[in-house]
Give the backbone structure.
Amino acid sequence: MSRTRKITREERIKALISGYLMPIATLTMIIGLWEAICRIFEIPVWLLPPPSAIMARLVEFWPLLLCHTYVTFYESILGFFVAVILAIPISIAIAYSRMLQNTIYPILLVFQTVPKVAIAPVIVLWFGLGLESKIVIAFLVSFFVIVVNLTTGFLTVPPELIDIVKLLNAKKTQIFLKIRLPYAMPFFFSGVKSAITLSIVGAVIGEFVASSEGLGYIILAAAPQLDTDIAFAAILMLSAIGLALFATIHVLERAIVPWAFRETR
Amino acid sequence: MVKDVIIVDNVTIEYYGKKSRVLAVKDVWFTVKNREFVSIVGPSGCGKSTILRAISGLILPTKGKIYVHGKLVEGPQPGIGMAFQNPNLLPWRTALKNVLLPIEILGGNVKEYERRALELFELVGLKGFENRYPWELSGGMQQRVSLIRALIHNPEILLLDEPFGALDALTREELNLVLQKLWMAEKKTVLFVTHDISEAVFLADRVIVFKARPGKVIHEEHIDLPRPRTLDMKTSEEFLRYIKSIRKHLGLSYKV
């Protein structure tokens, strides 16, 4: 009767190769190709620095870069956390109030489509040149995507699932805790995953508008002086934050809603 | 003492469709005795599921009254267990945790009921699958889990809304036997909605025949076949006579 069987060692190795080794090999090849093109065609460093030059700068300016990485990390993660903390109760309120569904929810949907980047200069004007304005922008870009996703999760619970507990005279809090909340968790995580990377974009945009620290500031300062290799080193650090944060959320998601991954098992 | 556990007294149910009011069932009257197994058959759109939802208390009749254990139905009550065509299992819970959900909702001692749950798993042939997730189970297995979830809190009445409607013919026959076994072991009053006449006759003490638009009771057939019933009986003359009689009342002659 059993439909599942033990995964063999060969299959596991195959999965490992296609899952990790292949992309890593591809990336290595691309970097190698990049290095080769830079050397063969003698492309000037200010136009396109070779990976070796970027690495050299990364090592050379490591303490400085780390300092600015911390600033950008701090701005984005704080904006992101405030977004999560505010999004959860607001989504619950919308899910349980017909009135809010008809008033605030459509407005949120419209706001989600507004390019928040465009209002960055205004935010800087309102919140000043310091970290606050960057945190606010990081918050804005992540907030809407979380609220919209989570609310969609709460509102799309199949009524048949709710009937199962309604039949037993379940209280509203029971319906929420046993059905709606777990059902909405994968939606929440998909929102949070978009938000975490967007929050870094938000912080950098804020730094581009006006700042005296952060990786966005480094890129903005390095590029006009043709220190393209430093700019690239900063971009590398940005990618590293993004990757680390995304991976953290991904691990959390696997641990909290393993059932949502049933297709990919 | 034989007493009517379910009384459906001249019930009319209307609901609001997209454009107009839809009359689902009109002046429906029937009763179900204690520990009786009653099947309701009828064409799609005859309101048989609507009647079941009304008995469960999930919806209220527009006109007429429904009594369960002599009490007017005004909302859901834990004395009723219900299963649907879709197993509706929660994907984030194992089979066992799904079955124990009603106990959590009713505030019972989950540990205590775990033993009963395991017994029920064994009874329906799912021993060893308790810790599987729903998506790891076949459609027939999911439906068995759904059946024992409806029974876990020991309700006196079991309402089954086309529980085997989405299964293939062979699995359906197998589950008919499982359901008979459950019913004989647990001694519940069962109201079983289906559009499969053979299934209805096979399981029931009595078959209530509905017509559609609006849904109405047009016939009742008492099935006097001995228990436990076997699949062999399905080809017996007696069995076929019941089927013919019900088909006649449904007006199914299939002139091509």
